[in-house]
Each structure stands twice: as C-alpha cells, then as structure tokens.
Amino acid sequence: MAPGRTPRRALDAAFAAAPREAFLPASQRRFARLDRPLLIGHGQTNSQPRTVRRMLALLDVRTGQRVLDVGSGSAWTTALLAALVGPGGEVVGVELVPELVEQGRANLRPFRLTHARVEQAQPGVLGCPEQAPFDRVLVSAAAPELPAGLVAQLAPDDAVLVVPVAGTLVELRRDARRTRLVEHGAYSFVPLVTDPP
C-alpha cells in the first residue's frame, strides 16, 4: 500500500491559517510571497514555501497527533503543524538559539494556539526525548546522517520522520512490523546542530 500524504485541502487551510509574513522579521515581510528562503537572523532561515509544503505533505499529518518540530526557527512550521493537528493534537517546537525561541513564541502568541509551543533545545540533546514518543517528527535542518536519536523518539506504530540527510530529503515511516526509508531528491538546509554557535 502506498504511504499516506497530508491532503492538499488540509495544507491549503494550514497555509491560510498561518501566513508566512507573520513569522518573518519586519525587514523580510515584503518578500514573504517569494518562493525562496528568507533570513530570520542568527544564521538561520525561514524555508521556501514550496519546500515546507513538500515536507508537510510527506509527513502525513493527521488531526489529534503529537508532533515534534525540530529547528522551529521563527515558529512558522510550528504554527502550520498546529493547524494540521487541530486543538486535539499537540505540537512541540524545539530551537537551539535562545533569541529565536523568544521570537518564535512571540510569533505564535497572536494565533492563540494553546496546543503548540516552542521550547529551548538543550545543548547536546537532539529533539525532546523527555516528551517522546511523537507520532510525527519534522526536521528543518540538514543532518549529516539519519539522526538515530530522533528515530528513537518516534511512536512504535504509524510514525513518520521527515528530515534532510546529507543533502537528500528523507522520509522514514515506522509501523509495528517494519521501518521504511524513502528518498525524495536533493534539498539544501542549514546544518542540524546540538550545541549553540
């Protein structure tokens, strides 16, 4: 059976509910409609919309799920995921740069998403193991190899991880019987790190 995908209608609704410009610094908002990465400070970017949409489609997000958003940056992906899981779900964004943690929290505040939050990532720790397991894990930074620590934070059944690995977008799907990996072409992201710059 072919893997599921987040429905187009749900993605359209999520992008309408969390407009990109609301998650950009003032100097970048005029570029919000451009399909390219935009700077958000501290060497980080807000990924281009086409890439974000592709990753969310592969993630196969459903209402009521628990989702981990690794490298949440300005919290745009956190808000999009919150729209997809609905108020019965939960989204935990983790970000290493303290200033971006505060920026992400401030960006989320007007949307009153009580089921979504941004937390400070712990140095040397990938993801949020103390709150695992998660039904879905989205990683918006490039790992040099498949991050075993994040795979370990997935639920044991019907779980999906989407992560750029060594320049290739990877979809990992786990069910009770097996774990499958599918590659989805070349993508460029900032590096995934676990220690502050």
Secondary structure layout:
Blueprint: H1 8-17, E1 38-41, E2 44-46, H2 49-59, E3 66-70, H3 76-85, E4 90-95, H4 98-108, E5 116-120, E6 136-139, H5 148-151, E7 159-165, E8 168-174, E9 179-186
Parallel strand pairs: 3-4, 3-6, 4-5, 6-7
Antiparallel strand pairs: 1-2, 7-8, 8-9
- Mean pLDDT across residues: 94
The count of helical stretches stands at: 5
Strand content: 15-25%
| Reported CATH architecture | 3-Layer(aba) Sandwich
| Portion in helices | 10-25%
What Rg do the Cα atoms give?
A: 15 Å
Here the CATH topology equals Rossmann fold
Give the H and E element order. Answer: HEEHEHEHEEHEEE
Strands of the biggest beta sheet: in what spatial order?
Answer: 5-4-3-6-7-8-9
Structure classification: alpha/beta
DSSP, total strands: 9
Low-confidence stretches: none
CATH-defined superfamily: Vaccinia Virus protein VP39
Counted up, domains total 1
Structure description:
This protein has helices at 8-17, 49-59, 76-85, 98-108, 148-151, and strands at residues 38-41, 44-46, 66-70, 90-95, 116-120, 136-139, 159-165, 168-174, 179-186. The longest helix is centred in the N-terminal third of the chain and has 11 residues, at 49-59. The model has no long low-confidence stretch (mean pLDDT 94). Helices cover 23% and strands 25% of the residues. β1 (38-41) and β2 (44-46) form a beta hairpin. It starts with 7 loop residues before the first helix and ends in an 11-residue tail after the last strand. It has one domain: Vaccinia Virus protein VP39 (Rossmann fold). The chain has a seven-stranded mixed β-sheet with strand order 5-4-3-6-7-8-9. With 197 residues, it is an alpha/beta fold. α1 packs across α3 (76-85). The protein is globular.
